[in-house]
């Protein structure tokens, strides 16, 4: 069996950039975006035609898609699979877990990795990104999200038995964050 690294982080920490740097160091890595796998499952069931329709599905169908996506990811046999996803999503009703119990267990992660950055860096990155229409959040709100991410990560680790790693993606240091993940992978490889 290979490695299944679940990489998470709040929007604006630079998670995708760190994943890109990691895959440049490990070209044998298969990167999957959890939401994309969910979309493939939804299309296979003929529930939707595009991603925008998916979030409008009833919650019970979304939960079924989450579990189906997690099961599909668990069956991937590449040496290293990186799963790019979210621990939680901010909604009008509060924070909705992106990796609830049955989903994180079905995915069978070997490692859980949280990409972090300072609240000030996250605020700056979110503001500077013209490609996204993100909700305005204060530095205090971002600090809360960063703390919540650690809590969700600890719960996911407890539920799965997978070790957790927190890497800091300071401004201009994505390569160092990716190297921290590479170092962990070398240690795990023995």
Question: Could you characterize the architecture of this molecule?
Answer:
- The protein is an alpha/beta fold.
- It has a single domain (3-32, 78-189), classed as 3-Layer(aba) Sandwich (Rossmann fold).
- Helix content is 51%, strand content 18%.
- It has helices at residues 15-25, 34-44, 51-54, 59-74, 101-107, 119-128, 139-160, 174-189, and strands spanning 3-8, 30-33, 80-84, 88-91, 94-97, 111-116, 164-168.
- The strands form two sheets. A five-stranded parallel β-sheet has the order 2-3-1-6-7, sandwiched between helices. Strands 4-5 form a two-stranded antiparallel ribbon.
- Strand 4 (88-91) and strand 5 (94-97) form a beta hairpin.
- The relative contact order is 0.22.
- The mean pLDDT is 90.
Overall body shape: globular
- State the end-to-end CA separation: 14 Å
Domain tally: 1
Question: Which stretches are poorly predicted, pLDDT < 50 over at least 5 residues?
Answer: none
CATH classification, class level: Alpha Beta
Helix content: 40-55%
- Give me the side-by-side strand order of the main sheet: 2-3-1-6-7
CATH-defined superfamily:
P-loop containing nucleotide triphosphate hydrolases
Order of helices and strands: EHEHHHEEEHEHHEH
Based on secondary structure, the structural category is alpha/beta
Counted by DSSP, the helix tally is 8
Strand percentage lies at 15-25%
């Amino acid at each position: 069996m290979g490695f299944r690294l679940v990489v998470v982080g709040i929007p604006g920490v630079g998670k995708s950039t760190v994943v890109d740097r990691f895959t440049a160091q490990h070209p044998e890595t298969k990167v999957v975006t959890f939401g994309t796998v969910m979309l493939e499952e939804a299309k296979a069931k003929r529930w939707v035609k595009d991603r925008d329709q998916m979030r409008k599905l009833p919650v019970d169908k979304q939960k079924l898609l989450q579990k189906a996506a997690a099961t599909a990811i668990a069956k991937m046999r590449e040496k290293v699979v990186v799963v790019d996803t979210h621990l939680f999503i901010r909604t009008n009703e509060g924070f909705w877990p992106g990796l609830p119990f049955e989903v994180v267990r079905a995915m069978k992660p070997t490692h859980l990795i949280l990409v972090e950055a300072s609240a000030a860096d996250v605020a700056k990155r979110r503001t500077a990104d013209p490609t996204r229409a993100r909700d305005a959040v204060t530095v205090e709100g971002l600090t809360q999200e960063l703390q919540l991410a650690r809590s969700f990560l600890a719960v996911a680790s407890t539920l799965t038995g997978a070790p957790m790693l927190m890497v800091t993606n300071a401004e201009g240091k994505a390569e160092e964050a990716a190297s921290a993940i590479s170092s962990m992978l070398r240690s795990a490889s023995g």
